[in-house]
């Protein structure tokens, strides 16, 4: 199949394959340059399929050696990546022998070599680079895998399932035989071979069965595996406790590799991870890194049931496993953080996790919904499936799953999960099957809810309020719609939107809410309204007679992935920021207040005017800063300004330079106005005793380092001295790297000295050097232009374009994480982007396509930038060879 093949695959055309593969017996003779794979399959023709229908298997980059059918040489043709076999019988055994060159496989899909070890990545369509196969998720088979290799070079041989046999072979070789008793699709196949060591632990699950857990890494990384092991154990315990889902294999393995396109992969029983999400210790990993390891280990383990035991019928159903499992890992992370302290700390931890998730959703997924790659949670078509591993499928998909829990509660959601597994364990199914299980388990009609899967774009809910003080009645009118410039041809019909609301009295207390047709016993301070029509009015009764007009708290806990249109004035937002009992909406009020001020300032600066920050905003932030009753982690979130990327998306025509200037000015004003408070916060939030990556300690460090960052905005030497001292004395990476960031922002000789020292300290720690590259790529233009720094770093001996982590650390950090410098008026950033997309396209199309998406929203920007972006896109379109990149750039150009 040509890389430029324009074939578009449509969901409506789905048909089951004419043949089933029941068992697979794979034998690998591993060699870096010539690995021989013998694939023996028991194949059955489906009922009703004509006997003369040929079997067609997919392959890519394979050298065919032999094909036998029931032990006899078979009639077969190999062309265009398809192996056609004239079977002519209802069931048969087919053996296909091929060889491939793993060392030359820079795409990191299929079987490849990293640092002398063998690894695989098969999702979505990598298995066809290993052997000819019906490489689709609805073909589920049991696998027996035998690995043979040189024992000295590859002492460890791993695959899915349980190890049943191993031993020596002639000529210094050895073998290992693995059997996976659970039927699985080919995308869940995995093998690993090399010089690795493991942290091992045996635990007992709830029924007393022992389970062997292993975290495999290169020898020098073994001391950094304890947190990953603890996270795996916590994940196993949580899934049993929360959902009654046990670990079903005798062992569970995690393997870390430095060359990996994604974060991790949930292969049955043998999860392969990017080292970024396994390795962690206090000297090399930040609090965020520790939290990410826990979340990603949890995510991949939870796939054991939501993705592996029940998998996707076709790739259009990708959110069936990914949206559901993201929701599960979000809940897991919230529960892990909440379990550390008292009730107030627990509530704060849950709110902070929700804030983090929604902040990312709004910044990335809402932008995707508004761009040329907009698609529903369940796409209707694709040209390259790798391009649909998107924030819409994952994060918006998780929000769709969360709405089931919002509608039915935890108990109702659990009933739906139980029924889902009861009906579909061992099957490849659809998003509709999951929705039906939720509906049936809760006696609900969820036909309208299907639209969340089939409609693209971010819904908007316009809110109107009216208060009859004399009658104690409050009317809330909700209108749902999409933006007029929505870029999608999918329907725009009314959705079922769970819309959570509260009302605050003049003292900031929650009012009990009862709808006009309900008994008094139904009153609660937060009500989830079911918005099902284009417009609905809800009336609350029994409110205080002749009371002050209540302040509405809308979409509490972000109960649906929508944009709320309601014109709060600054005073109301400041009031909610100070008083709302819903911690998410308290944060939301501050973000709205800051966003409004920043956009006004950016518009003024873009027009050449002088911008000023409202004192209402300054005072509101000061009150949060001074409120010691708030958990440090929450204060850190509340005092962190909206990102430049998010702000640019809120403008009619994005002007990154003006946004950066406005945000810098606001940070400077908040630093100046509250300098004494920032200093007090910095001094009061030291963490004493040994380092612990707990939510409580991490929150204290986060607030303290935020204070240091604000102090670094002041035009005096005191902050530099604080940062230098913290950098020198830090006993953990969080504090050291935060101090380095503050010094880099201040600039000067001290910053350069610290950057050089940091490199010398950690030059043999790849993940830390990724941070070093990223920090420099994300600095604003100063005495030296950042693009010049990036080009200089591109030639640094530690930079390697073939390594996805390193490419992301420098190139992606500059192009996607530094809007003002990247969008320079001279288009130098765009020229660099085009060069790197084309260079990566020749090596690793999947990574290249992700970089290509940086310019997909080019029409959103001010006219002075568009020509440079369009020229860069045209250059890439003319030179790109892969389907991955051509699909993205083609849609961007329209």
UniProtKB/TrEMBL annotation:
<keyword id="KW-0479">Metal-binding</keyword>
<keyword id="KW-0645">Protease</keyword>
<dbReference type="GO" id="GO:0016285">
    <property type="term" value="F:alanyl aminopeptidase activity"/>
</dbReference>
<dbReference type="Pfam" id="PF01433">
    <property type="entry name" value="Peptidase_M1"/>
</dbReference>
<dbReference type="Pfam" id="PF17900">
    <property type="entry name" value="Peptidase_M1_N"/>
</dbReference>
<dbReference type="Pfam" id="PF11940">
    <property type="entry name" value="DUF3458"/>
</dbReference>
<keyword id="KW-0031">Aminopeptidase</keyword>
<dbReference type="GO" id="GO:0008237">
    <property type="term" value="F:metallopeptidase activity"/>
</dbReference>
<dbReference type="InterPro" id="IPR045357">
    <property type="entry name" value="Aminopeptidase_N-like_N"/>
</dbReference>
<comment type="similarity">
    <text>Belongs to the peptidase M1 family.</text>
</comment>
<dbReference type="GO" id="GO:0006508">
    <property type="term" value="P:proteolysis"/>
</dbReference>
<protein>
    <recommendedName>
        <fullName>Aminopeptidase N</fullName>
        <ecNumber>3.4.11.2</ecNumber>
    </recommendedName>
</protein>
<dbReference type="InterPro" id="IPR014782">
    <property type="entry name" value="Peptidase_M1_dom"/>
</dbReference>
<dbReference type="InterPro" id="IPR035414">
    <property type="entry name" value="Peptidase_M1_pepN_Ig-like"/>
</dbReference>
<dbReference type="InterPro" id="IPR024601">
    <property type="entry name" value="Peptidase_M1_pepN_C"/>
</dbReference>
<dbReference type="GO" id="GO:0008270">
    <property type="term" value="F:zinc ion binding"/>
</dbReference>
<feature type="domain" description="Peptidase M1 membrane alanine aminopeptidase">
    <location>
        <begin position="228"/>
        <end position="452"/>
    </location>
</feature>
<dbReference type="InterPro" id="IPR027268">
    <property type="entry name" value="Peptidase_M4/M1_CTD_sf"/>
</dbReference>
<dbReference type="InterPro" id="IPR037144">
    <property type="entry name" value="Peptidase_M1_pepN_C_sf"/>
</dbReference>
<dbReference type="InterPro" id="IPR001930">
    <property type="entry name" value="Peptidase_M1"/>
</dbReference>
<feature type="domain" description="Peptidase M1 alanyl aminopeptidase Ig-like fold">
    <location>
        <begin position="457"/>
        <end position="566"/>
    </location>
</feature>
<dbReference type="InterPro" id="IPR012779">
    <property type="entry name" value="Peptidase_M1_pepN"/>
</dbReference>
<feature type="domain" description="Aminopeptidase N-like N-terminal">
    <location>
        <begin position="105"/>
        <end position="188"/>
    </location>
</feature>
<dbReference type="InterPro" id="IPR042097">
    <property type="entry name" value="Aminopeptidase_N-like_N_sf"/>
</dbReference>
<dbReference type="Pfam" id="PF17432">
    <property type="entry name" value="DUF3458_C"/>
</dbReference>
<keyword id="KW-0862">Zinc</keyword>
<keyword id="KW-0482">Metalloprotease</keyword>
<keyword id="KW-0378">Hydrolase</keyword>
<dbReference type="InterPro" id="IPR038438">
    <property type="entry name" value="PepN_Ig-like_sf"/>
</dbReference>
<feature type="domain" description="Peptidase M1 alanyl aminopeptidase C-terminal">
    <location>
        <begin position="570"/>
        <end position="893"/>
    </location>
</feature>
């Amino acid at each position: 199949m040509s890389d430029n093949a324009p074939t578009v695959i449509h969901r409506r055309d789905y048909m089951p394959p004419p043949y089933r593969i029941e068992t697979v017996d794979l034998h690998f003779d591993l060699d870096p340059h010539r690995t021989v794979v013998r694939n023996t399959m028991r194949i059955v023709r489906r009922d009703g399929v004509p006997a003369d229908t040929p079997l067609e298997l997919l392959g890519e980059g394979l050298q065919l050696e032999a094909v036998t059918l029931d032990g006899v040489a078979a009639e077969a043709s190999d062309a265009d990546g398809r192996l056609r076999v004239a079977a002519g019988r209802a069931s048969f055994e087919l053996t296909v022998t091929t060889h491939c060159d793993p060392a030359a496989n820079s795409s990191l899909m299929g079987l490849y070599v990293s640092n002398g070890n063998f690894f695989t990545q098969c999702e979505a369509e990598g298995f066809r680079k290993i052997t000819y196969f019906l490489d689709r998720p609805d073909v589920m088979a049991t696998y027996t895998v035998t690995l043979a290799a040189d024992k000295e070079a590859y002492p460890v041989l791993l695959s899915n399932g349980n190890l049943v046999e191993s031993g020596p072979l002639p000529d210094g070789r050895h073998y290992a035989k693995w059997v996976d008793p659970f039927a699985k699709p080919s995308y869940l196949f995995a093998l690993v071979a090399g010089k690795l060591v493991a942290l091992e632990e045996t635990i007992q699950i709830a029924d007393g069965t022992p389970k062997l857990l292993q975290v495999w890494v290169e020898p020098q990384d073994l001391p950094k595996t304890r947190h990953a092991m603890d996270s795996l154990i916590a994940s196993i315990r949580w899934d049993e406790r929360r959902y009654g889902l046990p670990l079903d294999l005798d062992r569970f393995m995690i393997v870390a590799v430095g060359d990996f396109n994604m974060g991790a992969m949930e292969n049955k029983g043998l999860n392969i991870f990017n080292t970024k999400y396994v390795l962690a210790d206090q000297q090399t990993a930040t609090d965020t890194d520790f939290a990410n390891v826990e979340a990603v280990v949890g995510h991949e383990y939870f796939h054991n049931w939501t993705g592996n035991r029940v998998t996707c019928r076709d790739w259009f159903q990708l959110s069936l496993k990914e949206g559901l499992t993201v929701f599960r890992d979000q809940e897991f992370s919230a529960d892990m953080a909440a379990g550390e302290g008292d009730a107030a700390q627990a509530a704060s931890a849950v709110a902070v996790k929700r804030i983090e998730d929604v902040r990312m959703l709004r910044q990335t997924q809402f932008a995707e919904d508004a761009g040329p790659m907009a698609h529903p949670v369940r796409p209707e078509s694709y040209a390259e499936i790798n391009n649909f591993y998107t924030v819409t499928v994952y994060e918006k998909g998780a929000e769709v799953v969360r709405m089931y829990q919002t509608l039915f509660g935890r108990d109702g959601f659990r009933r739906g999960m139980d029924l889902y597994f009861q009906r579909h364990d061992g099957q490849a199914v659809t998003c509709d099957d999951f929705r039906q299980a939720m509906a049936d388990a809760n006696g609900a009609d969820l036909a309208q809810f299907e639209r969340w899967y089939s409609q693209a774009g971010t819904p908007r809910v316009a809110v109107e309020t009216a208060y009859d003080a004399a009658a104690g009645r409050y009317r809330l009118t909700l209108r749902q719609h999409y933006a007029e410039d929505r870029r999608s041809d999918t329907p725009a019909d009314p959705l079922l939107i769970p819309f959570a609301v509260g009302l605050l009295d003049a003292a900031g207390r929650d009012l009990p809410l009862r709808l006009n047709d309900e008994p008094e016993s139904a009153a609660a301070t937060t009500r989830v309204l079911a918005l099902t029509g284009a417009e609905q009015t809800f009336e609350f009764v029994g409110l205080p007679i002749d009371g002050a007009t209540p302040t509405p708290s809308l979409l509490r806990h972000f109960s649906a992935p929508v944009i709320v249109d309601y014109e709060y004035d600054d005073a109301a937002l400041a009031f909610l920021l100070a008083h709302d009992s819903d911690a998410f909406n308290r944060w939301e009020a501050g973000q709205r207040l800051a966003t409004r001020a920043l956009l006004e300032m950016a518009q003024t600066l873009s027009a050449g005017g002088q911008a000023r920050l409202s004192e209402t905003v300054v005072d509101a932030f000061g009150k949060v800063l001074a409120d010691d009753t708030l958990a440090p982690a929450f204060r850190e979130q509340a005092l962190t300004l909206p990102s430049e990327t998010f702000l640019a998306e809120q403008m009619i025509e994005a002007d990154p330079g003006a946004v950066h200037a406005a945000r810098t000015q606001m940070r400077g004003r908040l630093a100046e106005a509250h300098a004494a408070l920032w200093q007090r916060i910095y001094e009061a939030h030291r963490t004493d005793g040994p380092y612990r990556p707990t939510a409580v300690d991490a929150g204290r460090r986060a607030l303290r380092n935020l204070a240091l960052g604000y102090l670094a905005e002041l035009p005096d030497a005191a902050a530099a001295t604080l940062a230098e001292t913290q950098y020198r004395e830090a006993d953990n990476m969080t504090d050291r790297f935060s101090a380095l960031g503050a010094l880099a922002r201040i600039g000067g000789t001290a910053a350069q000295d610290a950057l050089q020292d940091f490199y010398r300290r950690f030059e043999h720690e790849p993940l830390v050097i990724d941070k070093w590259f990223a920090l420099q790529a994300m600095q604003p233009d100063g005495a030296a232009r950042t693009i010049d720094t990036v080009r200089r770093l591109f030639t640094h001996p530690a930079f390697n374009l073939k390594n996805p982590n390193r490419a992301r650390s420098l190139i992606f950090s500059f192009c996607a994480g530094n809007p003002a410098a990247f969008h320079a008026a001279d288009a130098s950033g765009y020229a660099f982007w085009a060069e790197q997309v084309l260079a990566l396209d020749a090596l690793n199309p999947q990574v290249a396509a992700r970089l290509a998406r940086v310019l997909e929203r080019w029409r959103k920007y001010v006219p002075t930038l568009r020509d440079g972006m369009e020229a860069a896109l045209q250059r890439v379109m003319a030179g790109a060879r892969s389907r991955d990149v051509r699909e993205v750039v083609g849609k961007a150009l329209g």
